[in-house]
Design brief:
Elements: E1 2-3, E2 6-7, E3 11-15, H1 19-30, E4 35-39, H2 42-51, E5 56-60, H3 67-77, E6 86-90, H4 95-104, E7 108-111, H5 116-137, E8 143-147, H6 153-162, E9 167-173, E10 176-184, E11 187-193, E12 196-197, H7 198-205
Parallel strand pairs: 3-4, 3-5, 5-6, 6-7, 8-9
Antiparallel strand pairs: 1-2, 9-10, 10-11, 11-12
Helix pairs in contact: 2-3
C-alpha cells in the first residue's frame, strides 16, 4: 500500500484501552500481512502519528480521559494526516456520540463488539480507495510502453529510477499487456503482474 506516497506494507494504528480486544485486533491484522502498532491511549497514539507514517487508524471513542474525540481532531487538523482513513469503535449506542465523531471526520463508526472480519474489510477498502485516488492523481504526468523482450525489466527499471520518471509503465508481450507499474519521481508506488500486486509483482518481473 501507500505510506506518504510510497509502497509499503499497510501500517495500521489501533487504539483501545481494553487490552484483550487490542490484542485480538492486532493479531487479526498481522495474520493478514499488516504492520500493526497497538496502543492503549490517545496520547500514545499521537506520539506514534508524530513519529512514523500510518495508513489507517482504528480507535475506541471513549477513554477515561475522554481523549477519543481529541485524537480524531488531531488527525483531521494535520495536513499530513487529514486524509488518513479513521474508523471509530464505540459501545455507546447513542446516535449523538456517533454523529459527533462523523462530524469531526471519522470515516466510519462501528459498534463494539464488532466482527473482526468486518473491521478488516472496512479498513482494507478504505486503504485501497486512498491508494486508487493517489495513483489517479499522479497518473497524468506521462506514460511509458515497452516490450519485455526488447528491454527486460531488470534493464528498464534502473533507467526510470535514475531519470526520476513519473507515470504508468505498461509491459507487454505479443500484443498482450502483462504488467503495469506506477512510478513517482523514480520510485515504484504500485505494481500489478497477473494476480500479483505490490512487491510480489515487482519481484516477479525480474
Amino acid at each position: 500500500m501507500l505510506t506518504s506516497g510510497r509502497f509499503e506494507i499497510p501500517h495500521l494504528l489501533v487504539v483501545d484501552s481494553e487490552h484483550a480486544f487490542l490484542k485480538l485486533v492486532e493479531l487479526a491484522f498481522r495474520r493478514r500481512g499488516h504492520k500493526v502498532t497497538a496502543v492503549a491511549s490517545p496520547a500514545q497514539a499521537i506520539e506514534v502519528l508524530d513519529r512514523e507514517p500510518v495508513d489507517a487508524l482504528v480507535s475506541e471513542l471513549h477513554f477515561p480521559d475522554g481523549g477519543g474525540y481529541a485524537l480524531l481532531e488531531h488527525v483531521r487538523a494535520s495536513p499530513a494526516l487529514r486524509r488518513m482513513p479513521a474508523i471509530i469503535l464505540t459501545k455507546d449506542r447513542k446516535a449523538r456520540s456517533k454523529v459527533r465523531a462523523l462530524e469531526i471526520g471519522a470515516d466510519d463508526v462501528l459498534n463494539k463488539p464488532c466482527l473482526l472480519d468486518e473491521l478488516y474489510v472496512r479498513v482494507e477498502s478504505m486503504i485501497e480507495r486512498r491508494r486508487e485516488l493517489f495513483l489517479a492523481a499522479h497518473d497524468v504526468r506521462g506514460e511509458f510502453a515497452g516490450k519485455l523482450r526488447a528491454l527486460p525489466a531488470a534493464e528498464l527499471f534502473p533507467l526510470l529510477l535514475h531519470g526520476r520518471k513519473s507515470g504508468l509503465l505498461r509491459l507487454a508481450e505479443a500484443g498482450q499487456e502483462l504488467a503495469r507499474v506506477w512510478w513517482l519521481d523514480g520510485e515504484v508506488v504500485e505494481a500489478e503482474f497477473g494476480p500479483l500486486r505490490g512487491e510480489e509483482a515487482v519481484y516477479a518481473l525480474f
